[in-house]
Amino acid sequence: MMSRLARPISGARGRPPRAASCSGPLLAKRSSRPAGAAAHRRGSRCGVKCSSDSQTLPIGILPFFHLHPGIFSMGEQNHSPGKELQHWTQKEAPGKRSWHSHAYALGAISNFMSTFLTFPIYKVVFRQQIHAVAVSEALRQLWHEGPQYFYRGIYPPLLSKTLQGTLLFGTYDSMLCCLSPVGPHSLGNRWAAGLMSGVVEAVALSPFERVQNVLQDGRKQARFPSTISILKEFHSYGLWGRLSQGYYRGFWPILLRNSLGSALYFSFKDPIQNSLAEQGLPHWVPALVSGSVNGTITCLVLYPLIVLVANMQSHIGWQSMPSLWASIQDVWDTRGRKVFLIYRGGSLVILRSSVTWGLTTAIHDFLQRRYHSRKEPKD
């Protein structure tokens, strides 16, 4: 057996040299000359240069270099956190998959954790949006109601935010793969994918936000003590009333807010993260800062829509359902026709957005790294 393996690959019968003969480890066993010299002499008959050590390379190996260029450039890859998702996407063969199931799971986990940790801040902000009061007054209201009501209404946002993360990150990843299967992902690709993910999110999550806003309004506690009581009220309407006046009350402002917010978030998340990663910071710092900055700016730009949605969805019952334009006029009048009063609660919005989106982005980035670090050795 060993004698047959040690025979020269190019024999007297004129068989062509095999692709594995570039390095020539077997021929080196029976030749006193260095393996590199033998490989150079054999490769000269092929006329192809080997890029790694200037040795020649058989023609049969060329298709492998063209089909798998990433394998031979691992030492030159940019390992900045923000560019790794694009690198992982580029490693997929074109047309192999248009969606990744793990993106939905990672989005769900990251949003679940960040929502649970930041719900107290969210509830204080909601009270400010509804009653136009200061932070101290909102805290006083919650303290007066008692600790048993402090986490009242957490289940709808916990469920909705978990579903939001599933749809937001999962749909964005799927849309991005459809628009740019192998990269690079341009600003237009990220904007379009974020916009479409926001539309899907708005359609799926408006009912959850509607129930949540009714539950968190302190004026509705006696009439609607639980989620079941709200659902019974909605189901007392007709079919169209359940949609327009019930579950999808305030849908158009939600659609505009979610689509623009998702587009802004995904458009600038990676550029900010890449810039910070070049400074040599720990992996979690660029993701945390990028999510915080993006979430804060996006929320402040769209804050008037957030206030409008909260006020529209707090109304319930046929007799107290103003139209979209009437709701806009009501918010403008009750805020004294002043922009800075519309931004009442903006300080806590900055804090909530910074913490929520910073945690969400950092957790998502961490889980994504763990997933791909476990997957790459198997591949």
The CATH superfamily label reads Mitochondrial carrier domain
Question: Helical element count?
Answer: 17
pLDDT < 50 stretches: 1-79, 88-97
Number of domains: 1
Radius of gyration in whole Å, from Cα? 30 Å
Beta-strand content bin: under 5%
Main beta-sheet annotation: none
SS elements, strand count: 0
Structural class: mainly alpha
Order of helices and strands: HHHHHHHHHHHHHHHHH
In angstroms, what separates the terminal alpha carbons?
Answer: 32 Å
CATH architecture descriptor name: Alpha/alpha barrel
Q: Mean pLDDT, rounded to whole units?
A: 75
Membrane topology: Multi-pass membrane protein
GO molecular function: NAD transmembrane transporter activity
Pfam family, one: Mito_carr
Family: Belongs to the mitochondrial carrier (TC 2.A.29) family.
How would you explain this protein's 3D organization?
There is one protein chain. With 379 residues, the protein is mostly helical. It has one domain (98-371): Mitochondrial carrier domain (Mitochondrial carrier fold, Alpha/alpha barrel). The protein contains 17 helices and no strands. It has helices at residues 2-5, 27-30, 35-43, 62-67, 81-91, 101-131, 135-145, 155-179, 187-216, 227-235, 239-247, 251-277, 284-301, 303-314, 324-334, 339-342, 346-378. The radius of gyration is 30 Å and the shape is globular. It comes from Bos indicus (Zebu). It is a multi-pass membrane protein. Keywords: Membrane, Mitochondrion, Mitochondrion inner membrane, Repeat, Transmembrane, Transmembrane helix, Transport. It is found in: Mitochondrion inner membrane. Its main location: mitochondrion.
